Amino acid sequence: MNKIKLAIIGMGRMGITHYAIINTNPNVEIESLVDTSALILSMLKKYIKIKTYKDYNELFEQSKLDAVLVCTPPNLHFPIIKKAAEKKIHVFVEKPFTTKLNQAAELTQSYKDTDLVNQVGYVNRFNDVFIKVKEYLDNKVIGSVIRFKSEMFSCTISKSDESSGWRAFRENGGGAVFEMASHAIDLVNFLIGKPDKVVGSSLNFIYSKNVEDAAFSTFIYRNGITGQLNINWSDTSYRKPTNKIEIFGDNGRILADQYSIKIFLNKPDTQYKLKRGWNTLNITDVFKAVPFYVRGNEFTRQLYHFVDCIQDKQIQNKCTFADGVNTLEIIENIFNDYRQNGSV
Do the beta carbons of residue 309 and residue 302 sit within 8 Å? Predict the structure, then answer.
């Protein structure tokens, strides 16, 4: 089988991370790299013997590619992916897919009736702990879900900013909702399902001038489930970004983050050998090894999954553009709900 010829567009933090991971896959040949920074391109040329471009349009015109990893700021995703669709190229794009729901829907439609792989980088779907939580929920270990809380905290913004950089403007994909809530929302969609209604949304501006630093919202489902979203990227009690999910069912409760699960059961579960009362599992109890480790198994697993889906059309992709649209729809509902009711 021929190697997949791949390019990475955007060589910032995530682009470099993805380069390190995908470069270890024996089925991939990194054909070229793209970035608008002359400094970054000069460093790449010095240390990596590979073609570089300053403009993604040049890449698409001059290279024959099978796939691209899109790691630019979110507001640039739409024209890049649209061009990739025209060239019939497989795409992995960093979250939150795009900054506009209608653009995301258009891109999803352009890939819908093709055999091209389309994937959004929501890594929680590939985290060992959250995969185990999904398994527990599917098998009704805590019974029927009644309520939940999805949270994400970090100390990303811990002082007043000067409104510089793309993260300082929502139009570019900045702010705690696009940057962090998107992960927590996608985790809800993955574990519980997409909510039917968003109410009670609030946004807090702690240090930032133009974007929210914290967000809170309530999710409502037609089947009676309710949930809460709680996000804060200005919480200095956290050293690094942490996702948390708490799920209450009629047979117990699950508390989980990226590294461990605590599960309380009203009655024991013989299938999983879980006792009545509290049970604790660490990621070392549930993890599956990956060929290369950077930041977490999930980062490698999602990119290797992208490659596997390209090579084997029978594999169902775990995080498609359609999943990205679902998350963006909830994000838009949160912003709309806050605009309508948040200033009460």
Answer: no
